[in-house]
């Protein structure tokens, strides 16, 4: 386990829970993180497997702490949820991601979608829908270029209270995706009723692909998810693609899009602009 050094710069990359003392320190600092411009966004490209082009990016938040260095979201999103700070942080993420999407367009770069993660607490917030619509209006992002990622468990839990709201967003042209699909506890019959456009197949399925021989069952499972999603007219994105073998299997199964270290790690907005520029040529 990592230690909380006096003067050292710590970089937290794991998702393991923090010791109570560290949690308390970070919780207090998190209140000031937003005000002091310590949060930044990185963007991970999403690739169309048919054309090999970047069709979207997922916005991922990081916290550049003045003493402790870069802190990964696995370390502080939970704290932000507990304190309710996820609501202003989430709104900052949404607004910044939409502004950036618009800025790429204004620089003459090809249109891409930007996917933004929504947490449970944000979905429970009474004003979520109107705030999302306000951010879209303020920033001038194409609504069809905004995608909201909601994990399967949260989506199923909240769908009865949120169905109308989510449908309002879809009617405005905004896309909704089910994140981490396959890790929730929903019955498959539920899938037909969720107001979504895109299914993100969880990394646990992708992980087991691309290894010769012993992967027959994993292969059958991933292929079934893709076929089922297509029957429901959902686009499928595979997450955490790390090897050429995984990519080859997914492409053969008809998976639409993929993201993962095999293609690109999450990148800064200038690096995304550079990739889009190369793609235009
Ligand atoms: P997620 O939504 O499942 O995001 C994908 C995570 O997988 C990201 O980690 C990404 O860097 C990582 N990843 C991408 N490609 C690969 C790969 O090939 N292999 C492996 N092993 N990992 C890969 P990250 O950025 O640390 O984010 C972790 C989680 O934190 C996200 O999981 C999401 O649940 C949450 N999160 C990140 N940003 C936000 C945000 O702005 N708002 C909210 N509510 N949650 C966020
Ligand atoms: Ca996500
Ligand atoms: Ca995910
Ligand atoms: Ca995840």
Automatic annotation (TrEMBL):
Domain (EAL): residue spans on this chain: 23-280
Leader sequence segment: none
Protein name per the record: Diguanylate cyclase
Species per Swiss-Prot/TrEMBL record: Massilia terrae
